[in-house]
Design goal:
alpha+beta, globular, nine-stranded mixed sheet, 347 residues, six-stranded mixed sheet
Length: 347
């Protein structure tokens, strides 16, 4: 039997703090839980979005852990969940893998989404990082923050596709982030949202907010990139996807993009709204603080899925499919620079 990691029964209470929002006018002290609650984001999702942000534990119930023993050959790894690359000779060495086959296309994953996605119980993870005084400001900003509030969102699957489903980019295990930078007095300076290979930093006064302190992010259909407005946005998909590819693969990707005949954009919407409790029309989102006592998945050294592919057409075929490499890596939970909090190594 292939091991399912959720069966290990990790207790969330061993490493997390559940926190609730505070009133927008309340004093914000030094308590990390209170800071995270004060600036917890509000997320707007497209009406056709299949995947809600979920707990890692629910993903581990469905995924298996595998080790690459020879090039392209992966075998199941028995419990406990690995926390280091000890004994590895290949890269990537360890990965999580859902039961569906990536190169079979999206149909199997869609069935899983229908069975497992729960819009009534969304989850966001939070961490607080102290920024060294010598750290330069993020791009476009004049003042460096003293604290970064990181909000980490986990989706079981990324299924970006163009408007008419001609071009697809998919991978298992999708980490995205929203970050709020605070100055020494805990006043907000900016918000930074992950978007594909990188992201955008916006000064706090220009950020749309709910309840006075909660930044609004519009989540792109399928890709889960976070945007500051719900206007369709260019994804810079080609530049992102070509990063790390060889010359021949870059040529093939350019051909696929041309043949798709679809504008390569992210599409946002306002159908599902998740965020802090107490806001009208918002489904309460559980905020779990990543603290000092960690479950093993917090230090999982492998990749969070089988891999990543791009293809043209309704289903993948060898002539119209490109392997984009590995799935995302484990986030840098306490990153002190914004760039380290972007989507970890997948796109």
């Amino acid at each position: 039997m292939i091991p399912r990691w959720g069966s290990l029964g990790f207790a969330l209470v061993a490493f997390v703090s559940l926190v609730l929002p505070v009133a927008s006018g309340a004093h914000v002290g030094d308590d990390p839980a209170q800071l995270l609650a004060t600036y917890q984001p509000v997320l707007y999702f497209h009406s056709s979005e299949d995947w809600a942000p979920e707990t890692v534990d629910s993903y581990l119930l469905r995924a298996r852990v595998e080790r690459q023993v020879t090039k392209g050959k992966w075998v199941p790894v028995p419990p406990p969940l690995p926390t280091s690359y000890a004994g590895c000779t290949l890269s990537p060495c360890i990965r999580l893998n859902l039961p569906c086959t990536l190169r079979a296309g999206y149909a199997c994953y869609h069935q899983e989404a229908v069975a497992d996605t729960d819009w009534t119980a969304p989850v966001v993870y939070g961490s607080v990082a102290t920024v060294p005084a010598s750290t330069p400001p993020p791009p476009g900003q004049t003042q460096a923050p003293r604290l970064l509030l990181h909000y980490w969102l986990f989706y079981a699957f990324d299924n970006w596709h163009s408007l008419h489903d001609r071009l697809w980019q998919i991978h298992e295990g999708d980490w995205e982030s929203v970050t709020v930078g605070l100055d020494a007095s805990h006043s907000p300076l900016f918000a930074a949202y992950s978007e594909h290979c990188s992201g955008t930093v916006t000064p706090w006064p220009a950020v749309t907010k709910r309840g006075g302190t909660h930044p609004v992010a519009y989540v792109a259909l399928g890709s889960h990139a976070n945007w500051f407005s719900n206007t369709p946005a260019k994804t810079h998909f080609a530049e992102c996807m070509k990063s790390g590819l060889g010359a021949s693969a870059k040529v093939r990707l350019s051909t696929l993009l041309r043949l798709a005949e679809d504008q390569v954009t992210d599409r946002m919407g306002t159908a599902h709204v998740s965020g802090p409790a107490g806001l009208p029309g918002v489904t309460p989102m559980t905020l779990i603080q990543i603290g000092a006592g960690h479950t093993p998945w917090v230090t999982f050294p492998g990749k969070w899925g089988e891999g990543q592919i791009v293809w043209l057409g309704k289903t993948p075929h060898s002539a119209t499919t490109i392997s984009r490499g590995a799935a995302p890596a484990t986030p840098k939970w306490h990153a002190t620079q914004i760039a380290d909090a972007w989507h970890p190594a997948a796109g």
